[in-house]
Specification:
Largest sheet: 2 strands, antiparallel
Shape: globular
Number of domains: 1
Strand order of the largest sheet: 1-4
Structural class: alpha+beta
Strand content: 15-25%
Bound molecules: FE2/S2 (inorganic) cluster
Mean pLDDT: 86
Distance between the termini: 28 Å
Length: 102
């Protein structure tokens, strides 16, 4: 895209739109630590992948228009889990310690 801009093939206004779309498709850091949650066996949880939900760590629909989607987590047992808050974990939706490098 930027090469096309340099070559004069994409008007500057369009490049601005592309950059906004690129930014919208990236998750934002909700917080740089995990969310401790007591989950219930057999219950499904929908983890916010975009970082924009006001109901962290769960989805509230704020991802609409981002191209991102929540991640379903099915609790196989009643226990305490740590959902990722930085949205960069390689083990989404759970924390893997990546937040220490964000
Ligand atoms: S909060 Fe994202 S890896 Fe720990």
């Amino acid at each position: 895209m930027y090469r096309r801009q340099i070559a004069g093939l994409v008007p500057p206004a369009c490049v601005h739109e592309f950059r906004e779309q690129d930014a919208m498709s990236e998750p934002v850091v909700a917080r740089k630590s995990p969310f401790k949650v007591d989950v219930e066996q057999g219950k499904a949880y929908f983890w916010c992948a975009c970082g924009r939900s006001a109901s962290q760590p769960f989805c509230d629909g704020s991802h609409k228009g981002t191209g991102l989607a929540p991640v379903r987590y099915m609790a196989e047992a009643s226990k305490t889990v740590f959902f990722c808050g930085c949205k960069a974990s390689a083990k989404k939706p759970l924390c893997d310690g990546t937040h220490n490098r964000v």
